[in-house]
Amino acid sequence: MMTMIRGLIAVSRPFSMRMTPCELNGALIGAIAGLFFAVAWMAGKEADPSYVPVAFPLWLQMALVLAIFCWFALFALLCGPLRYAPSTVAGPLLVNAVVTCVLTVYLCNLVGKPMLFFAIGIAIGFLVGRLLCRYCRAPGKTARSKEG
Questions:
Q1: Which of the two ends of the chain, N or C, has the fewest CB atoms closer than 10 A to its terminal CB?
Q2: Is 77 part of any domain?
Q3: Which residues of 76-88 are buried (b: 16+ CB within 10 A; e: fewer)?
């Protein structure tokens, strides 16, 4: 197992060295969400050829279930073999997963082209990760940091 993880890290190193961990996690979450939503979309289209975009409560439920799944999968990966501290990973990863999955499923539902869902998910995850990283590292955002 460790050999496989080290191999994946070695292959992805040229990409991951240029991305922050938030961007990398977001892109992975978006890819998983886009892929699973595309599979669900195509399964629904096969069952009923007059399949239309998913209604609001259903796509939101699907997005939240995907967010929980993605959070758990990446949490297990980061805290298990990669040995990150659970207290530092859990919160930011959950926010990243929820925002990325909701936006990915919403935009994929609007586009309606299942072959693009994977790419849409990666792009949204990357952008959400970049925004979260910039927001969390912005200096002087808290009231405690202002003196006098």
A1: C
A2: yes
A3: ebbbeeeebeeee
Q: How far apart are CA 16 and CA 127, in angstroms?
A: 15
Q: What CA–CA distance (Å, rounded) separates 106 from 55?
A: 10
Domain total in the chain: 1
Quote the domain boundaries for residue 32: 20-45+55-137
Please state the pTM of the whole predicted model. 0.81
Tell me the pLDDT tens digit for each residue of 80-135: 888 889 998 999 999 999 999 999 999 999 998 899 999 999 999 999 999 998 88
How far apart are alpha carbons 22 and 32 in whole angstroms? 15
Residue 98 vs residues 5, 14, 68, 82, 92: alpha-carbon distances, Å: 25, 27, 8, 22, 10
Work out the average pLDDT over 51-62. 86
